[in-house]
Design a protein that fits this description.
The complex is a heterotrimer of chains A (484), B (204) and C (338). With 484 residues, chain A is mainly α. Helix content of chain A is 76%, strand content 2%. Chain A has 21 helices and four strands. Chain A has a two-stranded antiparallel ribbon. In chain A, strands 3-4 form a two-stranded antiparallel ribbon. In chain A, helix 9 runs parallel beside helix 13, helix 12 packs parallel to helix 14 and helix 14 packs parallel to helix 18. Chain A is globular and about 70 Å long. Chain A starts with a helix and ends with a helix. The mean pLDDT of chain B is 82. In chain C, helix 1 crosses helix 11, helix 2 crosses helix 9 and helix 7 packs antiparallel against helix 9. Chain C has two domains: 70 residues; 255 residues, no CATH class. Classes of the chains: A mainly alpha (484), B mainly alpha (204), C mainly alpha (338). At the A-B interface, helix 2, helix 5, helix 6, helix 7 and helix 8 of A face helix 5, helix 6 and helix 8 of B.
């Protein structure tokens, strides 16, 4: 029994064990060995990904139904690990150059990754909260990691205060749900609520209020409007590699969690949460499109862009159907690839050893670094949703699912928002290709970052050929949520 | 029975009164001291409930450790409360409104409190009879078996909190002499004193 | 009326009698402990010590008490009077209250509660408040510095003390102090858990602010630490509280490691002696060690003190918790398993 449970938990156990071992190694060998800690952490993530892929414990629940592993968790965890792994390998040189090469940095990344895996696999509101807190706490610390600069500490503090507030909301919601249903387990919640609905009893009012609070807490974690306020400031203030991390792995994990919580324990309340999600998705898309227009800092721009993307992803969830969830999953994968690539490019924006972040600094990139300009151009076109690049297909799946569910006007507004959004993505391309050339960037970015850029660019251009396997994987994952 | 009632009202009354004083005390240190009093009386309430383990842990952890650090910080910071109270009057209506909404919500919830029938069987582990198993043991039985996953997760969070606190605050200051006890002990007279042959009439 | 007296009056009288039976001897012992301290240190320093008041100076503590009673209570004008006066009362009360759960012989205990050892630990962790409050309320530099040092020190050493207690508890399987003593029937815990015994005793020294950890009072640097501003009865309460705490620590060490009231060997000449005598002998011996240490060792420096607490005792005690638990599980000797 315990053995079987532990086997299901193996990737997490492995990650936790590695964290402790690496921590000891770091403490005893000092900051001079940071690079080897980063490499070992990367290896840990790769190994964890293999374990997740192989699923040694098979599907099922473990530890008194606190934990579950199925095709959905596998799909989401692989995405998270890809995001975390890419950021980890890109951080190797970055933290050395940015003078923050301390061995705790990769370890905090690993902590956050562990938290994300735990929240994806949560099968109980309690384990959900534990995973979420582990992830958030690690992220607060990395946001403030460059503790001697005002911006970084401010970002960390803002993120912490607002994050703590949202955790409080989530917890309040959880306590209400527990109070009115009497259980926190996903499966039991699902059964009890479905039973209530089946008998046609009136819904307890506390349950609905609890659901709203839970949804608000989760919306904060995915930075959806109206809980997005922290995003631009934190993205701008945090060290760039940390921003890259924020925009990829935790987003994926939080979205996966959102999907799971809404469509498993609260599946019977779809009519209740659908309206919330429609509003949230709508507001995120519109705000992401319009607020980004006036940004001059590329990290702030990416913050609004990610708010917009979360909006599109939530359109799929708002559909409340299995195809909707499937579309969200496909969108998550595509979003991940595009964002990793873009942030890898942003990481290369250095002049004379210092990071530059203004969009105007990209001027004339096509002449000084044509390959990077081409890659960034591809990512921007993809984010704008120009066919046949990947970004287009992501939106296509999401909107198709929403149309199926009859949310026509939501789709119309979504398409309009993406047209507005296209403007600022294409503006970057215009700046790179047609503006007066600024000084070139430093070229010593290191092979890893170039590799990440190249790989994601190829994926964005060519992967639509392989959309079918991705779709199949997403279908399998979505069926785990709806089948069980 | 009457003794228990008296004890309950004593503890509960003091808890509430000191909680009120936490908010209204003019001196921040007094606030913290009232907070401690509130904790202590809450522990008394736990004892009345028969949860002596939690009561003692409350005193040891919250009163004995957390509140001490809290008191430390408050004493050292010397917070200017006059500045903090500025704008109190202008913000008071908003505070009252929010408080009112919260109270209405709470009343609403307590009024509609039900535990759905299908879930009753699922509610945790039944409490074993109190004279067979002490509540410490009962707690241990679920904490280390059923909820081991959460327990270990909480452990990871605490480890992370420690790492984070050290990362954000620890500085290695240069130019500090550190005592290395092993070196001190390993030092013998051979390392410090040397006998030299001094040739006569020339000195060292 | 009759009924009321039967249900409440008589139990109340019994409880009061029990409390008096502990409190009175305790207060007298504390008074004479101060006398013993002066005599022991005098002997260690080849002096005579107090020898004027009464035979061998035996009435010295009484004289001291009378003197303190009749002195004026000085309240510093800038002190926070309520807190200032409350601090010594708290210290003294806590030192007395803890004795409620100390069994001096089998069944000779006021409250034989389930969580006795936790109660003791909780009360001793509250002791820090008397110190902080007095230091802060005095509104004076030296007391405040002394209070800060003392609070940091007590909190630090509490951690390793907690782990030591956990080690003992996993060997016993109960928080009840009587059970803890009875579990030592075959062998006192000071033998299998010798390192923990040492850690506990040294932590007890630190917890009561005794030499070599008496920095909070450090006369030569802080004029007397947190009770610099106290005089007369308020000072006397601190003084009594402190010595009562020392005796309490000795009693705790006796219960946890030296088998409480149990004789060293359960054979003829030893088990004729009543349990309470053994208990008193053990406590007396430890109390003597407290004084002996004071007469012998110089004061620690602050960083050394912290280093000892956090870098030596904490890892050591943590390791022993794990090692003991592992040992018990491996050899299937876990008490009360099931």
């Amino acid at each position: 029994m315990l053995y079987q449970d532990a086997l299901r938990l193996l990737p997490e156990l492995f990650l936790a064990g590695s964290i402790i071992v690496l921590l000891m190694y770091g403490v005893f060998s000092g900051d001079s060995k940071t690079r080897s800690v980063v490499i070992l952490s990367f290896a840990t993530i790769v190994a964890a990904a293999v374990l997740v892929w192989r699923m040694p414990g098979g599907e099922g629940v473990a530890f008194a139904e606190q934990f579950q592993s199925d095709t959905f968790t596998r799909y989401a965890k692989i995405l998270v690990l890809i995001g975390a792994g890419s950021c980890m390998i890109m951080s190797m040189r970055y933290i050395e150059r940015a003078n923050m090469a301390r061995f705790e940095f990769p370890i905090l990344f690993l902590f956050a990754t562990l938290g994300m895996m735990m929240m994806i696999s949560a099968n109980d509101l309690m384990s959900l909260y534990m995973g979420l807190e582990l992830q958030s706490l690690a992220l607060y610390v990395v946001a403030a990691f460059r503790r001697d600069t005002l911006r970084s500490t401010e970002a960390g503090l803002k993120y912490f205060v607002l994050g703590a507030l949202s955790s409080g909301m989530l917890l309040y919601g959880i306590s209400l749900v527990y109070g009115f249903v009497g259980t926190t387990g996903f499966d039991q919640l699902n059964q009890v609520i479905a039973g209530l609905r089946g008998e046609g009893q009136p819904l307890p009012v506390g349950l609905v209020i609890g659901l709203v609070f839970v949804a608000a807490g989760l919306a904060f974690k995915v930075s959806a409007v109206p809980f997005h306020m922290w995003t631009p400031d934190v993205y701008e203030g945090a060290p760039t590699i940390v921003t890259a991390f924020f925009a990829t792995a935790p987003k994926i994990a939080a979205l996966a969690l959102f999907v799971r919580v809404m469509s498993e324990p609260f599946a019977a309340l779809t009519d209740q949460w659908q309206q919330i999600l429609v509003f949230v998705a709508l507001a995120s898309m519109i705000l992401g499109a319009f607020a980004a227009l006036s940004q001059s800092n590329i990290k702030r721009l990416m913050a609004y862009s990610s708010i917009g993307h979360v909006g599109y992803a939530l359109v799929g969830l708002a559909a409340g159907t299995q195809t909707g969830v499937e579309a969200v999953l496909v969108y998550m994968a595509i979003y991940l690839i595009m964002n990793i690539g873009t942030f890898a490019c942003i990481l290369c924006m250095r002049r004379e050893g210092r990071m530059v972040e203004a969009i105007s600094d990209l001027a004339g990139l096509s002449k000084s670094q044509p390959m990077m300009a081409l890659a960034l151009c591809i990512f921007m076109f993809s984010m704008a949703g120009i066919p046949p690049l990947l970004g287009f297909w992501g939106k296509w799946y999401v909107f198709a699912a929403a149309l199926d569910a009859g949310l026509t006007w939501l789709v119309i507004i979504g398409v309009l928002a993406s047209v507005v959004g296209a403007f600022y993505y294409i503006r970057i391309i215009k700046i790179m290709y047609f503006d007066e050339a600024a000084e070139p960037f430093d070229k010593d970015t290191g092979a890893e970052t170039g590799f990440v850029i190249g790989l994601s660019a190829i994926a964005v251009v060519g992967l639509f050929v392989f959309l079918a396997p991705l779709e199949n994987a997403a279908k399998l994952a979505a069926s785990a949520v709806f089948g069980g | 029975m009457i003794l228990q009632a008296i004890a309950f009202y004593l503890f509960a009354g003091v808890t509430v009164a000191s909680a009120v004083m936490v908010v209204f005390a003019r001196n921040p240190v007094h606030s913290v001291l009232f907070l401690i009093l509130a904790f202590f009386n809450a522990a008394g309430l736990f004892v009345l409930l028969g949860a002596e383990f939690i009561a003692m842990i409350l005193v040891i952890v919250y009163v004995g450790a957390v509140a001490v650090l809290f008191l430390f910080v408050v004493m050292m910071l010397n917070i200017d409360f006059k500045a903090m109270r500025e704008g109190f009057v202008s913000n008071a209506p908003i505070g009252v409104i929010i408080g009112f909404i919260l109270i209405v919500e709470l009343l609403l919830l307590v009024g509609g409190w039900t535990i759905q029938a299908p879930a009753i069987g699922a509610i945790a582990t039944p409490i074993p009879p109190i004279n067979e198993v002490t509540n410490t043991e009962a707690l241990g039985h679920v904490l280390y078996t059923k909820y081991i996953y959460l327990f270990q997760a909480a452990g990871m969070i605490l480890l992370l909190a420690m790492v984070g606190a050290i990362v954000l605050t620890h500085r290695t200051r240069p130019g500090i002499k550190r005592q290395v006890i092993a070196d001190q002990i390993a030092k013998g007279h051979m390392d410090t004193v040397s006998v030299q042959k001094v040739p006569s009439r020339s000195g060292v | 009326m009759q009924e009321l007296i039967m249900t409440y009056g008589i139990p109340l009288a019994i409880i009061v009698a029990k409390i008096l039976a502990i409190m009175l001897p305790l207060t007298i012992t504390v008074a004479f402990y101060t006398y013993a301290e002066r005599k022991v240190i005098a002997a260690a320093q080849m002096r005579r010590g107090p020898n004027v008041v009464g035979p061998f100076g035996l009435l010295q503590p009484i004289a001291d008490a009378v003197k303190l009673l009749f002195k004026e209570t000085i309240l510093p004008s800038k002190a926070n009077i309520i807190v200032f006066l409350f601090a010594p009362i708290l210290t003294f009360t806590l030192a007395m209250v803890a004795w409620a759960v100390i069994p001096v012989n089998e069944g000779w205990v006021i409250a034989d509660i389930n969580v006795g050892i936790l109660y003791l630990f909780a009360i001793s962790s509250l002791g820090v408040y008397g110190v902080i409050m007095s230091g802060w309320a005095s509104n004076s530099k030296y007391p405040f510095l002394g209070a800060l040092r003392s609070a940091a020190q007590m909190v630090s050493y509490e951690v390793s003390m907690g782990f030591v207690i956990v080690t003992v508890i996993i060997c016993v399987g109960s928080f009840n102090l009587t059970d803890i003593v009875l579990a030592q029937k075959s062998v006192w815990f000071c033998i299998p858990l010798l390192p923990m015994f040492v850690v506990f005793f040294i932590s007890a020294l630190a917890e009561t602010n005794r030499t070599p950890f008496d920095l909070p009072e450090g006369e030569s640097e802080l004029v007397g630490g947190y009770f610099t501003e106290y005089s007369s009865m308020t000072f006397a309460l601190f003084f009594l509280g402190e010595y009562a705490n020392m005796l309490l620590m000795c009693a705790m060490t006796t219960l946890l490691f030296l088998g409480g009231w149990l004789p060293p060997l359960d054979i003829a000449p030893f088990n004729w002696v009543p349990g309470i005598v053994w208990f008193l002998l053990k406590v007396g011996f430890l109390a003597f060690v407290f004084l002996w240490v004071r007469a012998t060792l110089p004061r620690y420096r602050y960083d050394q003190l912290m280093r000892l607490g956090w870098k030596v005792f904490l890892p050591l005690s943590l390791f022993w918790v794990v090692a003991t638990a592992g040992f018990l599980v491996y050899f299937d000797m876990v008490p009360n398993a099931g």
